[in-house]
Amino acid sequence: MKPIIKKPNRKRAFTIVELLTVMSIIVILISLLVPALNMVKRYARDVKQRAQFHSIGVALDLFHGEFDDYPPSDAQDTAAPPVDYCGAMKLAEAMVGQDLLGLHPSSVFRSDGRNPALPAPYDDLYPSSLDLTTPVHVENVRARKGPYLPVENANAYRLKNLYGPGNTALLFEDLFVLCDVYTRVRHRETGKKVGMPILYYKADTSKVLHDPNSPGTDNIYNYNDNIELVDLDLPWDTAHQHPMASGGQTPDGVVPRPEIFYEKTKNEKVAAIDRPYRPDSYILISAGFDGLYGTDDDVFNFER
């Protein structure tokens, strides 16, 4: 008889070296994959931002068809000095009204919306609640134009919800701005991630200059139209400024330069003179993924 040899009943397991090798490979693959996913995510956001600019462009064309002009963008506000009313805020009023009920045709784009020769278009509605049992409120709403942008898609937020109460300098904190599609800012009340205000500049077609050494009323586009907004502290970091701010110096030694606005909006295809893109209409600027005006990831309503 042959002897019966019992084989040990053991299953082969992975060694420590094999496990570490597999884990290392997984880590390497993830490290290669994450940047690619981030790039895809940023590209998708950029595409979405350009789609938003297209929607705003269509809405501005509707506004132009109604009033034979684009909304003003100058920061002057004679309603309640020293309050300013910048281009971004005037864009929001034109698109959705100061109370999101549409633009009142008697508004003259002041912070209080008032035309001194006519009844106040927003005073009896904003920020108080609307009472449609009151005839004056009913007639007020019936007179509205638009909203030219659907309110639910307009990304309209009050300044105080972006920067916090008391942090908006000379800008009336209860008024709205349209925000871009990025998520750099945390809404002060809801905690929701939202975008930065979209800057709006209207072309002055009576001018021919695009001079970064004279960032004011001599140019087709006036940098000062949104100066109060660009000069605000960053919503997430009060110690730093936008590279496109009008002055000062951040703790990291960066000196803001308003000239960046003219450099980034200059049409390099025109060699004879300094000429901006869209010299006969308007410019829209998103701060891009980093939320900073004046950096390389800014998005415009034109192809550079």
Structure description:
The protein has 304 residues and is mainly α. It is built from six helices and seven strands; from the N terminus they run αααβαββββααββ. A hairpin with a 6-residue loop joins strand 3 (185-186) and strand 4 (193-194). The N and C termini lie far apart (91 Å).
Compact overview of the structure:
The protein has 6 helices and 7 strands; from the N terminus they run H-H-H-E-H-E-E-E-E-H-H-E-E. It has helices spanning 16-67, 87-96, 135-142, 159-163, 227-230, 259-264, and strands at residues 156-158, 176-178, 185-186, 193-194, 199-202, 282-286, 299-300.
List keywords for this structure.
globular; 28% helix; two-stranded antiparallel sheet; 304 residues; mainly alpha
Strand order of the largest sheet: 5-6-7
Q: How much of the polypeptide forms β-strand, as a percent range?
A: 5-15%
Shape: globular
Q: Please, what is the average pLDDT?
A: 85
Report on the biggest sheet: 3 strands, antiparallel
